[in-house]
């Protein structure tokens, strides 16, 4: 396979005589930028003919001729559409007319960069409510998923462009989390959550989770967007495990949310996520990352949601049931919601609508001004919804 000169290069798009057209993604401080180069097969001379620029994300799909491409074009509030692009004049004409849902174009996207205490560069995509006023403090949800990296330089790379269409994500959970911005919340989604280390990185994962989360909170407070008393943290799958672990080891959050989470890794003794060691080879790492073992240190309300037919070995519904039972046995505020007939990632419209209601209701209750007690959820309830 010919490449276009970067690590994330795709195969050639087309060949025209002695020229081969290649596509790739250039790493930048604000995420990957798709480009097209052409390569002369005899001389190996390269010419870049197109790169996505500005606060947009444009992905080349086909080469029509030496100066004309078919691309997809999108922005955080502009739905993806297909275009014919003239690479010389930068003019383009639309082939499709997909539109955004009502009101999402009023959400204010911001790309944040910040640094954790040990100097590792982090980033996240922040969505602010429509008509947000600078300096206004609003309730915040930080949504993250951990990734493993060999070194700090690799961890600092922005893996996802902040200029992609937020509401077009293939992940329905991410979409409904982002829609909280229409309900008055700030949402820091895809917040960096790196675990750095060549080998046995999970031995320090808890410390790194907390350092990542602290850096995000400090940045939001520094910008005047958040105050310490109204920030929640959450995640899906291993992100839920991270959220529970952070809550057990930090006092920086007012509430937590875990969807399809794994809270007891001793039930997956042959390895989990990036952990290749067995439970018997690294018992301390398994224990440290099993939030149920540290439930006594979780002092804030925690919402657990799980598909009742989740076949993921490391994140079965039993994990959420055990976590809920541990928290309730300790007198903590918790809620367990089981989604009937749903697998690891819920997909039914009724389930997703219910997840959206549960999440917003939970955050409204614990991050927004108190409502009359009669309107509050029973914190000891466990429902098959």
Show the helix and strand layout.
Layout: E1 12-16, E2 19-26, E3 33-40, E4 46-51, E5 57-65, E6 68-75, E7 78-86, E8 92-94, E9 108-115, E10 121-128, E11 140-144, E12 147-149, H1 152-156, H2 172-178, E13 186-191, E14 194-196, H3 205-222, E15 231-236, H4 238-249, E16 255-259, H5 283-288, E17 302-307, H6 317-329, E18 334-339, H7 349-367, E19 382-384
Provide the descriptors you would attach to this structure in a database record.
single chain, 385 residues, alpha/beta, Rossmann fold, 2 domains, nine-stranded mixed β-sheet, four-stranded antiparallel β-sheet, 7 helices, 21% helix, 30% strand, globular, disordered N terminus
Strand order of the largest sheet: 9-10-13-11-15-16-17-18-19
Total number of helical segments?
7
Can you give the helix content as a percent range? Answer: 10-25%
Number of strands: 19
* CATH homologous group name of the largest domain: Alpha/Beta hydrolase fold, catalytic domain
Broad structural category: alpha/beta
The CATH architecture designation of the largest domain is 3-Layer(aba) Sandwich
Q: What is the gyration radius calculated from CA atoms?
A: 23 Å
Identify low-pLDDT runs.
Answer: 1-10, 374-385
Total individual domains: 2
On the 0 to 100 scale, the average pLDDT is: 89
CATH top level of the largest domain is Alpha Beta
Shape: globular
Percent of residues in beta strands?
Answer: 25-35%
For the largest beta-sheet, the strand count, sense and barrel status come to: 9 strands, mixed
Helix/strand order: EEEEEEEEEEEEHHEEHEHEHEHEHE
Spatial separation of the terminal alpha carbons = 50 Å
């Amino acid at each position: 396979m010919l490449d276009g000169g970067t690590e994330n290069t795709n195969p050639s798009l087309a060949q025209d005589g002695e020229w081969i057209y290649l596509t790739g993604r250039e790493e930048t401080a604000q995420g990957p930028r798709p480009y097209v180069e052409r390569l002369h097969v005899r001389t190996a001379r390269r010419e870049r003919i197109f790169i996505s620029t500005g606060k947009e994300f444009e992905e080349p799909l086909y080469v029509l001729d030496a100066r004309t491409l078919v691309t997809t074009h999108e922005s955080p509030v502009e739905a993806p559409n297909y275009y014919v692009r003239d690479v010389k004049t930068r003019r383009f004409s639309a082939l499709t007319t997909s539109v955004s849902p009502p009101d999402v174009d009023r959400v204010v996207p911001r790309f944040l960069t910040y640094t954790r205490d040990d100097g590792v560069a982090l980033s996240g995509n922040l969505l602010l409510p429509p008509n947000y006023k600078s300096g206004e403090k609003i309730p915040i949800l930080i949504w993250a998923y951990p990734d493993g990296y060999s070194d700090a330089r690799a961890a600092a790379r922005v893996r996802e462009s902040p200029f992609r269409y937020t509401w077009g994500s293939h992940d329905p959970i991410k979409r409904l989390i982002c829609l909280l911005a229409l309900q008055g919340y700030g949402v820091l989604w895809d917040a960096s959550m790196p675990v750095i280390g060549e080998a046995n990185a999970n031995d320090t994962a808890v410390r790194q989770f907390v350092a990542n989360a602290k850096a995000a909170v400090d940045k939001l407070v520094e910008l005047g967007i958040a105050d310490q008393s109204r920030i929640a943290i959450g995640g899906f799958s291993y992100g839920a495990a991270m959220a529970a672990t952070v809550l057990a080891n930090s006092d920086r959050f007012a509430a937590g949310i875990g969807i399809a989470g794994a809270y007891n890794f001793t039930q997956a003794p042959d390895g989990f996520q990036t952990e290749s060691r067995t439970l018997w080879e690294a018992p301390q790492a398994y224990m440290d990352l099993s939030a149920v073992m540290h439930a006594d240190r979780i002092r804030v309300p925690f919402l657990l949601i799980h598909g009742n037919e989740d076949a993921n070995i490391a994140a079965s519904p039993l994990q959420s049931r055990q976590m809920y039972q541990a928290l309730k046995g300790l007198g903590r505020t918790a809620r367990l919601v089981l989604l009937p007939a749903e697998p690891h990632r819920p997909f039914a419209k009724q389930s997703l609508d219910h997840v959206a209601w549960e999440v917003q209701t939970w955050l409204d209750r614990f991050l927004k001004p108190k409502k009359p007690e009669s309107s509050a959820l029973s914190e000891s309830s466990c429902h098959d919804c």
